[in-house]
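idk why but the lab printer keeps eating my pages so im just putting this in chat instead. protein + S-adenosylmethionine:
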Amino acid sequence: MMKEKMKDVIYKKKIQQVPTFTFNRKTALAFDDMAKRSIPFYSQIQDMIVGLSQSIVQPHTSIYDFGCATGETLRCLCDAISDRTIHFSGIDSSRDMLRLASRQSHLYSDHSLTFGCHDLNRPMSIKNTSVAILNLTLQFINPSNRLPLLQSIHKGICPSGGLILIEKIHPENEHLTPLYTHLYHSFKKDQHYSDLEISQKKKALETVLIPLSASDNLTLLKKSGFTITECFFQWYNFAGFIAIKS
Ligand SMILES: C[S@@+](CC[C@H](N)C(=O)[O-])C[C@H]1O[C@@H](n2cnc3c(N)ncnc32)[C@H](O)[C@@H]1O
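predcted complex ->
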């Protein structure tokens, strides 16, 4: 039996050789606290995902949350969407995340809610989907696999359905990188992360979280087939995009 979810203290102590960040058991147990304290406007982003999904979801279709982690976004969606013909599906490559996500499934036994393990770097196909969500997940996919993934999502989305994409981004103009980084680190300090925690986490992520600029993300969405694309949210180096299939 896994321990209960914990506070994020993963990088609190000095680590001699900081290992590459992974979504292992330790990360999964601390994830909910980590997300709230590391992602600016995290709960507002969840609210925007719910609002956008409610507006574009269609009866008798699926909502996919790719990189669903502990299932928090899907639980918010289940709470907000009363149509019982909708199927909710969470996909993640981390079995530790999925174990935590599945734990609370019994609370949603009157919904059609399933979780599945899949590495999004590998080919996949979906069908009859009106909403697909990639909340801070595409940034962890190998850059060369991002377009094929978005193309397969586009293929499985029904007309008027859409993809909600939230990503850490780098600024269009490199001169702004130090400023955005400074503001982001100030946010993390306000969330009671120390300088040591911030620098060790940054080191751990540097080869696995690869952000693109907002314009490169929009180009990928267009190349994958989405005709209507728009940035709906930005806070310095974080942005949300909506892409609708016409
Ligand atoms: C930063 S978390 C975001 C979680 C969640 N979407 C949220 O709203 O907080 C990224 C998630 O993507 C998953 N992930 C990372 N690489 C993946 C891959 N190659 N295939 C599937 N899931 C992946 C991780 O396990 C993790 O749960």
